[in-house]
Amino acid sequence: MHQPAPSTDLRHRTIEAPAGRLHLVEQGTGPLVLLVHGFPESWYSWRRQLPALATAGYRAVALDVRGYGRSSKPAATDAYRMLDLVEDNVALVRALGEEKAVIVGHDWGSGIAAASALLHPEVFRAVGLLSVPYAPPGGPRPTDVFAQMGGDQEFYVSYFQEPGRAEAEMEPDLRGWLAGFYAAMSADTMPTPGEPDPHFVARTGGRLRDRFPGGSLPAWLTEDDLDVYAGEFERTGMTGALNRYRNMDRDWEDLAPYGGAPIEQPSLFIGGALDASTTWMADAIDAYPATLPGLTSSHILDGCGHWIQQERPEEVNRLLTSWLDSLQG
Description:
Blueprint: E1 11-17, E2 20-27, E3 32-36, H1 49-55, E4 59-63, H2 82-95, E5 101-106, H3 108-119, E6 124-130, H4 142-147, E7 153-155, H5 156-161, H6 165-170, H7 174-184, E8 200-202, H8 223-236, H9 239-242, H10 248-254, E9 267-272, H11 276-280, H12 282-286, H13 288-291, E10 295-301, H14 308-311, H15 313-327
Parallel strand pairs: 3-4, 3-5, 5-6, 6-9, 9-10
Antiparallel strand pairs: 1-2, 2-4, 7-8
């Protein structure tokens, strides 16, 4: 059995990587676990996991993905393609003096973690996916799929793909926009069935925030937490984060050689029952016996929304550490 090591304080550092500079936060010693955040977040979204994994005997490392936080923000839109983000992760493992790591991602980080495991199985020995299920590369061109969603409304991904358009909505009031976006996808504050869906905007003059719930913050998000997120995006702007959405067709082309490919390594999936990612991609979850043949732990958390490791930190920590312990043999 893997023996827990004592927890240590958070350590901030930067490493050189293809992005230029990657900022990471590290806690603990032991087998390396790389934590990859999603949109619109930062390393801070793993603040409840870092000490738990360190206490359980792991070297937990949460990075700011390129374009976020204190990591470099390349100017070119195509510098945010999936292949580049994967190479950042490989470089990070090497810079930490390791040969292998377990990689765990949430939201876009789930897709980045999956691609990292798919392209570099020699580095990423296991993969954990939170909120967004694995779907192998392939199928129709993404922009064609998104354009057909919503009928007379526009899907949020299409809205994000046009350079400058979403920034014009978000950046004049980033703190307020983030509060609304987080609330819209949290179990305790999301719109009730029958209310306008915050994943869509009106095609003419619509804004996402027109669909956001008003009122209090979700229970998992304090005013101080919101200040951390808002402070990072007020400094960096939103373009680096949004550029992930603007590369989906490039990713589709880049990853075509891997069409339909399963991820063979041991894997974990945790989804929220109230998260649109879980319900919209139910077919992807049903296909796991073929697409994730190494799946050893799969859970849907009742009454949980999208921000899974922040909404349910104790439960996620328990599932994550149990799975990690099982990998140690």
